[in-house]
Write the structure tokens for this entry.
Amino acid sequence: MTALLWIRFIAGIALILCGIIVFGIELFGVFKFRYVLNRMHAAAMGDTLGIALSMLGLIILCGLNFTSLKMVLVVVFLWFASPVASHMLTRFEVATNEELGRECDMSGLAPSAEDTESER
């Protein structure tokens, strides 16, 4: 029985450490990238994977009980909320940044002034 507890402990700690490593890589990406949309992408992807790994490690350490169910629900909520929030912030950046064309390719994201004039 103690061998099973040690295996569960090692698996849980390994998942938590992997989550911490993902958060560190995300943090490096947020500070390394120059443009705000690249930073948003690094933060959103890192948060999703880092939270999933960390919470899965905590669930394994905690065992199967009501607390584990609550942690699973937190992960599910964050998986739905984080991409939606990142998408809304990105759309806000695209809508308000007038110099976006110099930073990245804008094909298909927002109508340009030439497109609106040609429609008239």
